[in-house]
Amino acid sequence: MLLIALIAYLVGAIPTGFIVCRLKGINDIRKHGSGNIGATNVSRVLGKKFFLLILFIDGLKAFLFLFFLSYLNLSLMTLILSSVALLVGNRFSCFLKFSGGKGVGVSLGVFLALCPAAFLSFIFFWIVLFFVTKVVGVASVVSMILMPIVGLCFRYDKELFFLICFMACWTLYTHHNNITKFLIKIKNRKE
């Protein structure tokens, strides 16, 4: 199980945004925009179409890895541990001196592989929230916070529900700077 988790970490650690930017002639995306290698920052530098590309590739690597493990009939606990390792690898990539992305794309891949109803719910909430707020980070964070409620509604196994709660907390952790900036911006508007 630990070997599989290590492999999952390495898969998650593949720095999609960094690689795509290198291929497009940007030496280090971390020196641009927010300093992140994720879809949002890449899209700021390369254009909006790259948002979907990075999100898709990050989600695909997580989905395919978990789908392969499911095909091997490994236990749900192994799949959950691998999901956590994918997220940790994405955030703390050993290929980038333990920097990385925020994990939304990877989370989508995990949802699609293990709980498709949560995946569809996340997409629905994200679209609605982005339409209302026009802020990607807010749409992502609030959608993820709503996922434990979705887990309860669909009566997922307690192990899957725990994973969904972990992913919600993980999203809050990886977006804490964005959340702080957003709250300061709201406070300044009121003043």
Task: Describe, in short, the structure shown.
The protein is built from 10 helices and no strands.
Layout of strands and helices, then pairs:
Elements: H1 2-13, H2 16-23, H3 39-46, H4 49-71, H5 76-91, H6 104-114, H7 116-133, H8 136-153, H9 158-174, H10 176-190
How big is the Rg?
16 Å
In DSSP terms (H or I, runs of 4 or more residues), the helix count works out at 10
The total of beta strands comes to 0
Q: How many angstroms separate the termini?
A: 53 Å
Structural class: mainly alpha
Round the mean pLDDT to the nearest integer and report it: 93
Work out the helicity level.
over 70%
- Major sheet attributes: none
Strand content: under 5%
Sequence stretches where pLDDT stays below 50 over 5 or more residues: none
Element-level helix/strand string? HHHHHHHHHH
Shape: globular
Kindly describe this structure.
This protein is mainly alpha-helical. 76% of the residues lie in helices and 0% in strands. It contains 10 helices and no strands. The model has no long low-confidence stretch (mean pLDDT 93).
Keywords:
single chain, 191 residues, mainly alpha, 76% helix
